[in-house]
């Protein structure tokens, strides 16, 4: 398996993975959007320089020439720039009655892991862990020393992964209709967890 930065050509394989997250979140703004239209917008987002290596970074896990996992994150102060991509793309799509506006999710002073998704056929093979282990280098490149994320309380498996990697709960937040634990990890601490 290879962990690498995503390329625009990966977008059609990244989009279905990220759509799994949108499905789990059950966001009311997206519930009436036909699946193919939502996938088209997500694919377009993951072809933009902003999502790939501009304000944000997308990292993929590749096995046998297929993208089987993806992580997407950015410095917290870039959240508005990143969110504008989806707002602009959905404004141009007839499938959206109004442009999609994401809720604020980040905490100041962190590199925010917005999304982590693994193909269901590859779950349980350490792909999520490998993606998490790759993220500190991108956070450091963005001059951040803490990685933060939100994990849905209805997803105990994801919580266990982050907990095992050393992330600690620092607060709670409502996103859509779900309660999320906000978790953070100082980058230096992750190195100790990886060495253990």
Automatic annotation (TrEMBL):
UniProt KW keywords: Acyltransferase, Transferase
Entries under CDD domains matching the protein: NAT_SF (cd04301)
SUPFAM superfamilies for this protein: Acyl-CoA N-acyltransferases (Nat)
Gene3D superfamilies per record: 3.40.630.30
MF terms (GO), sorted A to Z: acyltransferase activity, transferring groups other than amino-acyl groups
InterPro entries: Acyl_CoA_acyltransferase, Bact_Acetyltransf, GNAT_dom
UniProt key word Acyltransferase: yes
All copies of domain N-acetyltransferase, residue ranges: 1-188
Entry keyword annotation includes Acyltransferase: yes
Protein name listed in UniProt: GNAT family N-acetyltransferase
Source organism phylogeny: Bacteria, Bacillati, Bacillota, Bacilli, Lactobacillales
């Amino acid at each position: 398996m290879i962990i690498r930065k995503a390329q625009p050509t990966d977008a059609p394989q990244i989009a279905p993975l990220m759509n799994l997250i949108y499905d789990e979140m059950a966001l009311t703004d997206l519930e009436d959007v036909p699946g193919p239209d939502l996938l088209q917008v997500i694919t377009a987002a993951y072809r933009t320089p902003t999502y790939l290596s501009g304000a944000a970074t997308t990292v993929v896990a590749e096995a046998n020439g297929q993208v089987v996992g993806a992580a997407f994150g950015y410095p917290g102060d870039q959240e508005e720039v990143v969110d504008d991509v989806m707002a602009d793309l959905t404004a141009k799509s007839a499938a959206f009655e109004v442009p999609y506006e994401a809720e604020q999710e980040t905490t100041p002073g962190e590199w925010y892991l917005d999304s982590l998704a693994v193909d269901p056929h590859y779950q349980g093979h350490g792909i999520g862990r490998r993606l998490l282990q790759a993220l500190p280098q991108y956070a450091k490149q963005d001059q951040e020393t803490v990685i933060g994320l939100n994990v849905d309380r209805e997803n105990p498996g994801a919580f266990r992964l982050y907990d095992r990697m050393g992330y600690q709960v620092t607060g709670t937040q409502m996103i859509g209709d779900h309660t999320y634990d906000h978790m953070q990890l100082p980058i230096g601490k992750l190195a100790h967890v990886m060495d253990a």
